Amino acid sequence: MNVQPIQRIENPSVDEFKTTYGLQSKPVIISGVATEWAASSLWQPEMFKNMFGDISAPLRASDNEIDVFFGQSKEQTVMSIAEYIDSINLTDTKGKRPAYLGNIPLNSPLTQQYFNKIKSHFSFPNYLPENSGNEIRLWIGATNQKSTIHNDNYHNFNAQIFGKKTFLLFPPEEYEKLSIVKIDDELWSSPIDPQQPDLDKFPSFKEINGLEAELQAGDILFIPAFWWHQARTITTAINLNMWVFTANICKTWQEHPTFSKAVSTGYKF
Ligand SMILES: O=C(O)CCC(=O)C(=O)O
């Protein structure tokens, strides 16, 4: 795996971002924006415990998506936010790791009343003004939580609010070296664990080219639609992201030119 550090820019104007990164589908880390949000000083695991501790949340039983999508850990578990925060604080990297409070939609009917209490704490700039909507999601995970390598059909601005998280990013064309498979119509994912790749089974992963983003609190990572990505927490981490839907990108991976080329050359997803 050949990974280069991703470019970093300081508080770009909307025009600069849109022209050089958004319209070019070029990943970048934006600094100097989320650092100014109230969330940067207020959001810590204890704040969520104090404000929302009594709420019961459905969680994935495993914090490792490879177990969830390619293994046996499909079950969900329910616990209060207070119990969850205690479980991540107690995590011992050798012991059983806790569930994952990730992918929580904040602007959904179920969560709206809680979201209203914290929505003044952040404000994503409207870097892609031609968007057709957005969705805000919250992710609170313990050290070493891992997602699979997957892609999404919308742009993604992922703000690191607390702790550290690393993202690996690969261009859409690298699907073959990732042995991408279809999980369902919305989800295309890699069975490879990039931190411990099985190179006998997936030899071409050695040749892959990608980017690495080491996010510190206050950074915002731009992941363009259809770029493959994997998230991994380095410490207990709180992230807030905004998925941005735009009319000028194709709606599904099947509509992406790389996908049709892959299928025409015989690749079986
Ligand atoms: O932070 C994570 O666990 C995954 C984030 C992600 O992959 C996404 O927003 O698509």
Structure report:
By secondary structure, the chain is α+β, with helices and mostly antiparallel strands. It has one domain (2-264): Jelly Rolls (Sandwich), CATH 2.60.120.650. It has seven helices and 16 strands. The protein has helices at 14-22, 38-42, 45-52, 65-70, 81-89, 112-118, 257-264; strands at residues 2-5, 8-10, 28-31, 56-60, 76-80, 101-105, 131-141, 149-150, 155-162, 165-170, 181-184, 187-190, 209-215, 220-223, 228-233, 237-246. The relative contact order is 0.22. 2-oxoglutaric acid (AKG) binds at residues 102, 139, 147, 152, 156, 158, 229, 231, 239, 241. 2-oxoglutaric acid binds at residues 102, 139, 147, 152, 156, 158, 229, 231, 239, 241.
Number of domains: 1
Q: Main sheet?
A: 7 strands, mixed
Physical arrangement of strands within the biggest beta sheet: 2-3-14-9-16-7-6
User: CATH superfamily, please?
Assistant: Cupin
Total of DSSP H or I helical runs spanning 4+ residues: 7
Give the CATH architecture. Answer: Sandwich
CATH class type: Mainly Beta
Question: What is the N-to-C order of secondary-structure elements (H for helix, E for strand)?
Answer: EEHEHHEHEHEHEEEEEEEEEEH
Number of strands: 16
Named CATH topology: Jelly Rolls
Low-pLDDT parts are: none
Gross morphology is globular
Q: What is the arithmetic mean of pLDDT? A: 93
Named once each, the bound ligands are: 2-oxoglutaric acid
Radius of gyration: 18 Å
